[in-house]
Amino acid sequence: MHLKEVFTPEQLTTLFSQIGYLKKEVDKKVVSEWSNIYIDFIKENYQKSYRNYSKKFNEFIKQKDDSIKVVWGDCLKAMKVCSQNLSI
Questions:
Q1: How far is Cα 17 from Cα 36, in angstroms, rounded to an integer?
Q2: Selection from 58, 52, 57 nearest residue 40 by Cα
Q3: Which DSSP state fits 20?
Q4: Are 19 and 37 in contact (CB under 8 A)?
Q5: How many CA atoms within 13 Å lie on the side-chain side of 23?
Q6: Which residues contact 41 (CB under 8 A, 6 or more apart)?
Q7: 22, 46, 49, 77: most buried by Cβ count inside 10 Å?
Q8: CA-CA-CA-CA torsion for 61, 8, 39, 19, nearest 10 degrees?
Q9: How far apart are CA 87 and CA 60, in angstroms?
């Protein structure tokens, strides 16, 4: 199973708990919902792999509300790292 090769047992448990309600669905909604959940899960796990991952910051960003979130950081440094990774 591909998922067992990619995710840790804890990550699999989390993913399966998020999709458990789909067992009750019988239409095309299942594919759409599964895709959305899987993509969000992959993004979240990828973001956690960063060296400077901050759980508090991640929770702040994921908080769903009507407020505007402005994140200010060292954009120049980030752009330099990206350009080095892309060999530009």
A1: 14
A2: 58
A3: G
A4: yes
A5: 5
A6: 11, 14, 15, 18
A7: 22
A8: -100
A9: 33
Please give the Cα distance from 72 to 45 (Å, whole number). 22
Task: Name the pTM for this structure.
Answer: 0.47
Q: Cα dist. 3→9, 11, 32 in Å? A: 10, 10, 18
Provide the domain limits for residue 44. 2-85
CA distance readout (Å), 19 to 11, 28, 48, 80, 86: 13, 15, 20, 38, 35
Q: Which amino acid is at 53?
A: Y
Largest CA distance in the chain: 49
Q: What is the pLDDT of residues 51-73, one digit of tens each?
A: 666 778 778 878 888 888 777 66
Assign residue 68 a region (left: φ > 0; alpha: ψ between -120 and 50; beta: otherwise).
Answer: beta
Chain centre to alpha carbon of residue 15:
11
